[in-house]
Design a protein that fits this description.
The chain is an alpha/beta fold and 344 residues long. The chain has two domains: 173 residues, Glycogen Phosphorylase B (Rossmann fold, 3-Layer(aba) Sandwich); 164 residues, Rossmann fold (3-Layer(aba) Sandwich). The chain has eleven helices and 13 strands. The strands form two sheets. Strands 3-2-1-4-5-6-7 form a seven-stranded parallel sheet, with helices on both faces. Strands 10-9-8-11-12-13 form a six-stranded parallel sheet, with helices on both faces. Helix 1 packs across helix 11 and helix 7 crosses helix 10. The protein is elongated and about 65 Å long. The protein starts with a strand and ends with a helix.
Amino acid sequence: MKVLWLSPWMRPLSRVQTDALRAAGADVRLVTTDQHPESGPAVDGEWVVDTRFKRPSTWPEFCRLRRQVRDFAPDVVVTELVRDPRWMLLDRSAPRVDIVHDDRPHDDHEQLPAWERRAFARWRASSCLTITHSQYVSDRVASTRARVPTTVTPLASDLAESRVPALVPARERRDFVLTGRLNGYKNIPLVLEAWTRHREGPGHRGDHLILIGEADQDLDLPLGVRWERGSFRYADKVETIARAKASVAHYRRATQSGVQVLAMQLGVMPIVSDQGGLPELQPPGGPVVDIDDVAGLARAFDVLADSEHAADAGITARRAFEQRHAPAAVGAALSEALGRVARA
C-alpha cells in the first residue's frame, strides 16, 4: 500500500506515524514543512516544502512536488491540518482520509480566518474517512460530517522512542510540570491557586511547579512556581519532564492531548480535568479532577508529591502508553484503517 501523508504543521508527530506505517509494511511519503521547532533536516521519504503560496518563488517548488506525487501514485492520501489551498491538488485520483485532532478551536487564537474555513470545509467533508484519536472527538465530528464514516486510532507521541530516557526512580523524582502552549484554555490561574493551596499544606514535599512554553497571557506566579519561557526542543526539556512527579493537563476544553501522551511515554502520571476527551486517554487510576475543583486538584498534588507513589504511578502510565499508544499499536491501527479505504 502506497500512502501519501500531508501534514504541514505536525512534522514530529507525522514522522512517528509514518514510520509506524512503514514498520507495518506500507510505502509512505510525507509532505511537510519546516514550521515546527523540532523539524530538523529532511529524512528519507520526506518532502519538505514552503507553504507561503502568496510568494511566487514557492510555485516552481510546488509544481515539482506535484510531479513527484504523480510519479509516486499513492493508493490513499492522508491529510492532517492542511491549510495551503494548493495541497488540495495533490493527487486527487486517490481516496483521501482526513485526520481531525480536536472538534473545535480551543480559543480565539486558534480560530481560522473565515475564508479559510469556507475554502476547506467542503473539501474536508468530501473525504472517504475521518480519523480521530478519541471517541469523544469522533462523536462530535460525526454530527458535522454525517456522510463521512469515522474511526478511532491511537494517538501517538511525537517523541521518537529512541529519545525516551529510562524510567526515573522514586529517589530522583521531583517537581510538577505544565508544558506546551500556555493558552487560556489550559486553566492555568486555577492550577496556580491549587498549587498555592498544596504548597501551604502538609502534603508539600519541597517541589516546584515548572511551567514550560510560550503563553498568550500574563501570569502572576505564586511562590514555588518557575516559568521557563519560550518555544523549546525536546532535547532541552525531556529530562525535566521525565523526572517530574506528575504532568498537569487540567484543561477547560477537551483536547487530544499530546502533552498527556508524552507524559505517559516518559513514565509520568498526567493530572487531567473531567472535561471532554482527556479522561478517555488517562491511565488506569490516574487522577481526573473537576474543572473548577481547586481543593481536588490540590489533593492530587498532595498524593503525587510522595516520590514512591509518583514513581509507581509513572510505571502505570508507561504501561498504558505501551499498550495503547506505542508505535506498533499506532501502525497496526492506521494500516488497517487506510487499507480498508485503499481496497474500497
